[in-house]
UniProtKB/TrEMBL annotation:
Keywords associated with the record: Signal
Annotated Gene3D superfamilies: Galactose oxidase/kelch, beta-propeller, Galactose-binding domain-like, Immunoglobulins
Signal peptide: 1-40
UniProt source species: Streptomyces aidingensis
Ranges for region Disordered: 726-745
Protein name: Glyoxal oxidase N-terminus
Occurrences of domain Galactose oxidase-like Early set (ranges): 608-700
SUPFAM superfamilies: E set domains, Galactose oxidase, central domain
């Protein structure tokens, strides 16, 4: 097996600093290899037309492959495109899984590949069904053969049809790949004349258009106009504007006055429009629906009372915000109140919501389901219930088979009992514990995000603390690969340290100090910006930002945000590739109205590729969609716009769109699996070889007609067999691969769902006994209710270094800008009012220099 031609590019993209010198030296060679590929480029597939017989009944270097419960035949056929032999795969019955003829996974047969390179895979095929997919496996030099990814759905084709698709960049540690076409539905697939050629786009070479610091670490700017509202919710809308929801903004005064606000920020001109807000949406849940409107669920019915008889209360109301009219419209009520609920959109457009506090400030154990079809919340009895309390803002991430991964990231306290993370199967109504989350009771206001690309099903959880015990927040990260049969979190790299302001100005972090209130933002080059945070409960901002590379699993420290952004902050990607950050609400009850914007290093790296046309903005699953670009790109993706609050945005995702390249005309191959890219509006980015993204175009994935599964247990759709002639009617609308027309094979589509995470060994819990609610401490927010107004947070536990004395606590409160602090009753649990005059840290309690005034 000959090695592929040596294309003289250094490893590209993100590992820029070390690569700069190498690239400069290699430049002449790079230019040479940029010439159009010669026709003689070798086909890397051995026995590409099945003409050489093997030792058994399969042709040389081809094997039968696939999984699941189905009846199948895989055998050579004389119905060939070229030569005398082709390969026929037939499914006669199917409950689940796929079948394929696959390049034999051996050193003799599987083509060698180079890390970072891309390869054009092509073949000729006939198919009775569109439920096919080009599937690639990769040989990991340490782990052996693994499933890698599905890159292209082939439409039905009565006559031999050519198709071609480019692989993503070959991941590190990969030395060979094997590939074939998987058949997911009852029907017949015939393939022939496979080809694989190196199609690596040479790196344009190092460019730095800013200062050296900007090119390496990006740059923050603080905007001249302040955010007019105390918003802790940020939702990027499909018109490019940003909805900032404050409600009462955690201000008891505004709440008492009935002053509830939202603002719409327009990045185009930097303006804010404050809009009428019908209810106190402070600490609601939110998600963009399939049509791009925003579903806002629950919010704040009441602040805790001064006597500590009840805590925060969540109402049952729910609203839809329409970006077109910038107005809220009421929906039907939820079944329960949910202050701090989760909200996850599913592959069929439904929304599942869990957790939060009820109208009586106890914990809600009621799962809520928004029906896309009915456009309303369903009654409790129509929704599978486990009667579990999922905590507050539980991070519930949709998996590729429709199950939900609870990452263990949450807000307040310890999170749920158990290992800290679990997989919830809605159909089976079971919860299975997932092991490995480090320090699981100190992941309050950590950030979890599905890493790019969504196809890889990896989740990272970063940092966190605990407002009940108030230790220094940690630097831990944990990464889980949900493609494994029995996935478990593995420790990831430690968060880089920055500076922390403990009250006397920023000083370097020491020891194990990390941060909670972390924001995680998917960037269009396939990395993740983590930014913002604090060391303790609503105190001690940490100034540190870094970019995580999911390929190398490393952090690269970048410029820190100059603003303090801890509790009630959020950060999110704008369609122009910059990141906006807003909000900070420390324990003294104040609010930081400054807004900062980050330009990542890729914006200082030369001309951006431009998407010059998008053939259609309405996209179907499993289709190919044509765009044109003004310069070469190496990848394109959909990024779901942010709907973020309290470090939590479980719907944020980056969905790779494998390319079919014909010069400046690019066909984008859209996944057939709605669970990988739930319906809705997405930002479409194109990215060049140096990791520089285009400005996004907005495209829409509609709700699949066939609906989709809510859980792995319902994935088996049996589709009737079709004859070859039976597909002829639909051929006119189908892609022929090279002509680049858009295809809509959706009607016949069985999503390419994999059998990942199918052998869980964790403890399984079924539904609990039906109950009303979970008891919750009124101090759940980590604030001692005996002192001050409800929006002032005297911590129930002070940070570890604060002396356990009246003087020590008063000094800390004074250092953290707490003003005059009255007792709400006679109780003085923190011993701040030694003389009993009703004033904490006052005259007669502590010497003058420790007093609050
Ligand atoms: Cu909050």
């Amino acid at each position: 097996m000959p090695a592929p031609p040596s294309v003289s590019t250094a490893p590209r993209g993100r590992r820029r600093r070390s690569a700069l010198l190498t690239l400069a030296l290699l430049l002449p060679a790079v230019l040479l290899s940029a010439a159009p590929r010669a026709a003689a480029d070798p086909n890397l597939v051995t026995n590409p037309g099945f003409e050489t017989a093997g030792s058994g009944d399969m042709p040389y270097c081809w094997s039968r492959s696939g999984w699941g419960d189905n009846e199948f035949v895989i055998q050579p056929t004389t119905d060939a495109h070229g030569g005398s032999t082709a390969m026929e795969v037939t499914l006669t019955e199917r409950l689940e899984g796929d079948r394929k003829a696959l390049i034999t996974e051996s050193a003799e047969c599987a083509p060698f590949v180079e890390e970072g390179h891309q390869y054009d895979l092509s073949l000729w095929y006939k198919a009775t069904t569109g439920s096919n997919s080009v599937t690639i496996f990769r040989h990991d030099t340490t782990l052996g053969w693994q499933y890698w990814t599905d890159v292209q759905t082939l439409g039905p084709a009565a006559a031999y049809t050519y198709t071609e698709v480019r692989t993503p960049e070959i991941p590190p540690g990969t030395d060979r790949i094997a590939w074939g076409v998987s058949l997911y539905a009852v029907g017949t697939l015939i393939t022939d004349d496979y080809s694989m050629v190196d199609a690596t786009v040479p790196d344009p070479g190092p460019v730095c258009t800013g200062t050296q610091a900007e090119c390496e670490d990006g740059a923050w700017e603080v905007l001249p106009t302040e955010n007019p509202v105390r918003s802790m919710h940020s939702v990027v809308l499909h018109n490019g504007k940003v909805l900032l929801i404050a409600g009462s903004g955690n201000s008891e005064e505004l709440f008492a006055a009935g002053t509830f606000t939202s603002a719409v920020y327009d990045p185009a001109d930097g303006s804010y429009t404050v809009i009428p807000t019908p209810d106190d949406m402070f600490c609601a849940g939110h998600v963009q629906l399939a049509d791009g409107r925003v579903l806002v669920m629950s919010g704040n019915l009441a602040y805790p009372d001064a006597e500590g008889t009840h805590g925060y209360e969540g109402y049952k109301d729910s609203y839809i915000f329409d970006p077109a009219t910038e107005t809220y419209t009421k929906t039907n009520d939820m079944n329960d109140g949910h202050w701090y609920p989760s909200a996850t959109i599913l592959g069929n457009g439904d929304v599942l919501s869990f957790g939060g506090l009820r109208e009586d400030s106890t914990g809600s154990v009621t799962a809520e389901l928004w029906s896309h079809e009915q456009q309303q919340w369903l009654p409790t009895w129509q929704v599978n219930q486990t009667w579990s309390f999922w905590g507050l803002y539980p991070s519930m991430i949709l998996m590729q088979d429709g199950r939900l991964f609870y990452s263990g990231s949450h807000v307040f306290g310890n999170g749920t009992p158990g290992t800290g993370a679990s997989i919830y199967d809605y159909g089976a109504n079971t919860i299975t514990e997932v092991p490995g989350l480090q320090n699981k009771d100190e992941r309050d206001q950590s950030a979890s995000v599905l890493l790019p690309p969504a196809q890889d099903q990896k989740v990272i959880t970063m940092g966190g603390g605990n407002i009940d015990t108030n230790p220094d927040a940690n630097r831990l990260t944990d990464i889980i690969d949900l493609t494994q049969p029995d996935p478990a979190y593995e420790p990831g790299p430690l968060l880089p340290q920055g500076t922390v302001d403990l009250g006397d100005g920023p000083v370097p972090q020491t020891g194990d100090q990390g941060k909670m209130y972390v924001s995680a933002v998917l960037l269009p080059d396939g990395t993740v910006l983590e930014t913002g945070g604090g060391l303790h409960n609503r105190a001690d901002p940490v100034y540190e930002s870094s970019i995580f590379d999911p390929v190398t699993e490393t952090f690269d420290p970048v410029a820190p945000n100059p603003e303090a952004y801890g509790y009630h902050s959020s950060a999110f990607l704008l369609p122009d590739g910059r990141v906006m950050a807003t909000g900070d609400n420390p324990g003294d009850g104040s609010w930081n109205h400054n807004v900062s914007i980050y330009s990542p290093p890729y914006l200082f790296r030369g001309d951006r590729p431009q998407i010059t046309s998008v053939a259609a903005t309405e996209w179907d699953y499993g289709s190919t969609q044509q765009i044109t670009v003004d310069s070469p790109i190496v990848k394109a993706e959909l990024i779901r716009p942010a709907a973020v609050t309290h470090s939590s945005d479980p719907n944020q995702r980056f969905v790779d769109l494998p390319l079919t390249v014909n010069g400046s005309t690019i066909d984008l191959n859209v996944t057939s699996n709605p669970n990988l890219a739930p319906p809705g509006w997405y930002m479409l980015f194109a990215v060049n070889a140096d990791g520089v993204p285009s400005i996004a175009e907005w495209v829409h994935l509609g709700v699949p007609e066939s609906g989709t599964m809510l859980s792995a247990t319902t994935t088996g759709h049996d589709h009737g067999a079709m004859t070859l002639s039976g597909t002829e009617d639909s051929l006119s609308t189908l892609s022929t691969g090279t002509t680049g027309t858009t295809a809509s094979p959706e009607e016949d589509l069985v999503p390419a769902v994999q059998d990942f995470a199918g052998s869980l060994t964790g403890e399984v819990r079924g539904p609990e006994k039906r109950r009303e609610s979970e008891p919750v401490d009124v101090r759940i927010a980590g604030c001692e209710r005996a002192y001050g107004a409800a929006d002032v947070c005297v911590p129930t536990a002070f940070p570890p270094k604060v002396a356990d004395t009246t003087r020590g606590r008063c000094a800390w409160l004074r250092q953290h800008d707490f003003g005059r602090l009255e007792l709400n009753g006679t109780e003085d649990p923190l011993r701040l009012d030694r003389n009993g005059d009703g004033l904490a840290c006052g005259k007669g309690d502590v010497p003058k220099r420790y007093r609050l005034t």
